[in-house]
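Researcher: Sit down with what I've pasted below and flag anything odd:
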Amino acid sequence: QNLTSIGNVQIPYSIQFQSKEFIVTTILENAFNNSINIISVTFPDNSEVRSIEKNSFTKCSLKLLFIPSSVAKIGKSAFSNCTHLRKVTFSKNSKLEEIEDFAFSNCKLREIEIPQNVKKIGKSAFHDCTKLKVVNFEDGSKLQLIEKNTFCATKLKSLFIPPRVNLNEGF
């Protein structure tokens, strides 16, 4: 927690401990919270990280982020207040199903493409992303729910919402 990592953080496929191999499947809550020297995070091509938990990278100085296809959940406030974060890219064939509340709030994202398998975007997930102008949903989107205030305080001029989406008040 609150590591003083500088520059690039590399999330390994596995960790060796007492002659045993442990596959990395989760970035724990608060793992890199407030680590202002982290500007990028990389994952190996064969990453098995399935969950980026609550506040994992809150208040980091990330600029670019590539989320591997194995990630199914981005937790509450996982990247909130990363005020230098301008671009998030999801791997092809992303398994991401949920973007939780405040996940990217107060970031400087300019655009984002929501992967096809995302079913839920939590409340205020992109709130206060004051540079956000473009949100696209991947073809064949399975999105079912956009919670309230998701795109509040952004620069979106228009938004095409996939069919079958339930909109909570004031999305």
Q: What stands out?
A: The first strand starts at residue 7 and ends at 10.
